[in-house]
Write a structure and sequence with these properties.
This protein is an alpha/beta fold and 397 residues long. The protein has 2 domains: 206 residues, Glycogen Phosphorylase B (Rossmann fold, 3-Layer(aba) Sandwich), CATH 3.40.50; 173 residues, Glycogen Phosphorylase B (Rossmann fold), CATH 3.40.50.2000. Helix content is 43%, strand content 20%. The chain has an 8-stranded mixed β-sheet with strand order 3-4-2-1-5-6-7-8. It has a 6-stranded parallel β-sheet with strand order 11-10-9-12-13-14, with helices on both faces. α5 links the parallel β5 and β6.
């Protein structure tokens, strides 16, 4: 079978979890005997298109404007144009290379027009991996005014993306329930958990010594640092932990709240926190192999129920999970019932602090939770499970 994967960011340059997940999906399909093509934009290529191969996967890049780590207006314009540029620059490739299945990833919400065009050309079904319920979360958090022209603009493309799919895979049961109640449509929905390859890497010892952390228990956060994460939640935890000499926080990534973190480190003299820029996927894995606790945070005002992809990397390397979520998120029972981590509601700072102390003070407890995290990955979040579920939902297995 020929499978086409579409995502707005891809390996090897990307540091995003979505890019890593889609590459693992592509590689697993390839190992299963399928031919896989990835369609992805790039503002860096000089020509209109660039076709290459990565780990047996054909990668077709089309020239586009910048869509990462730029201003909101410019990003919205450039993302809106993605289907136009893809259709224009890859028109002959699409016509000459029909595929049997289209799998596309959200974010972004703007793929709908392209998916409908490809389905018409190829007569192939489409599967949407829905991981960002935008603009809903932005409306709830007051970033976009409800009923405004801006909201209506994004809602149009959101609906177009959903209607292009034969099946929509949401990341949890709570998300599926919320989607049904919110949209009240007959979309074909399924739960498709995030996934990861379960192959860990060995630590090469590149980070503890240069960062002066040889004797520390390191709480590691890696990934996007934006409004949806509420990074001040972690800053407050670091402030509450400043008297624990054995504890240190390492934050790696990029996003809208990086400057807030920098200011907080300086203002509050947080010597127990290190902020680093984004790194490659290989470096990221090495960091995971070297540190002790996997940290995550979600904004308390979320009405949807995210499962951050970064947790999968933590699980692969047997890191116990320390997290803070929005009310009602079903991530808490999934993780805690497996004994894989400790999770509180964002705003419960004392409980967040208490959980961090538990993982700091008991090395055996910490390692046992890390082992349980790995077991949870293998049972529920394997890439093999994801590849099979996508095909099965469309009757292609």
């Amino acid at each position: 079978m020929k499978i086409c994967l579409i995502i707005d960011d891809y390996m090897p340059d990307s540091i995003k979890v979505g890019a890593k997940m889609m590459h693992e999906l592509a590689c697993t399909y390839t190992e299963q005997g399928h031919q896989v093509t990835v369609i992805t934009p790039s503002p860096k290529i000089k020509e209109d298109t660039s076709i290459s191969e990565l780990d047996g996967v054909t990668v077709c890049r089309f020239k586009s404007g910048e869509i990462k780590n730029i201003g909101k207006i410019k990003r919205a314009i450039n993302e809106t144009l993605l289907p136009y540029y893809a259709g224009k620059h890859l028109k002959s490739y699409f016509q000459q290379n029909p595929h049997d299945l289209i799998v596309y990833y959200s974010p972004t919400i703007f793929w709908g027009r392209l998916i409908k065009q490809l389905k018409k050309i190829w007569n192939a079904p489409g599967y949407l991996i829905l991981r960002d319920l935008f603009p809903q979360w932005a409306v709830v958090q007051g970033l976009i005014k409800q009923g405004s022209i801006i909201e209506k603009y994004f809602r149009f493309f959101e609906k177009q993306s959903y209607s292009a799919a034969d099946t929509i895979g949401l990341m949890s049961n709570k998300n599926l329930e919320w989607f049904k109640e919110t949209f009240k449509t007959d979309y074909n929905l399924s739960v498709l958990y995030n996934w990861a390859s379960n192959t860990p890497v060995k630590s090469e010892g590149n980070y503890r010594k240069p960062l002066g952390l040889e004797e520390k228990v390191v709480y590691f956060y890696g990934g996007n640092m934006g409004h949806a994460q509420d990074m001040m939640n972690i800053v407050r935890l670091a402030i509450n932990m400043r008297n624990e000499k054995a504890a240190h926080f390492v934050l790696v990534g990029a996003g809208d709240e990086v400057e807030l973190i920098k200011k907080a480190i300086k203002r509050d003299k947080l010597t127990n926190m290190t902020l680093l820029p984004s790194v490659s996927q290989n470096e990221f894995k090495q960091m995971l192999a070297e540190f002790d606790v996997g940290l995550f945070t979600l904004h308390k005002d979320h009405s949807t129920h995210n499962f951050p992809g970064k947790l999968l990397g933590y699980m692969v390397q047997e890191l116990p999970i320390l997290g803070s979520i929005n009310t009602g998120n079903d991530l808490k029972p999934i993780v805690e019932e497996a004994g894989a981590g400790l999770i509180t509601i964002n705003g419960e700072d004392k409980a967040f602090h208490a959980n961090a102390l538990k993982l700091l003070q008991d090395d055996t407890y910490r390692k046992k939770m890390g082992a349980n995290a790995r077991k949870l990955l293998e049972k529920t979040f394997s890439v093999e499970s994801a590849t099979g579920q996508i095909l099965m939902s469309l009757g292609l297995n």
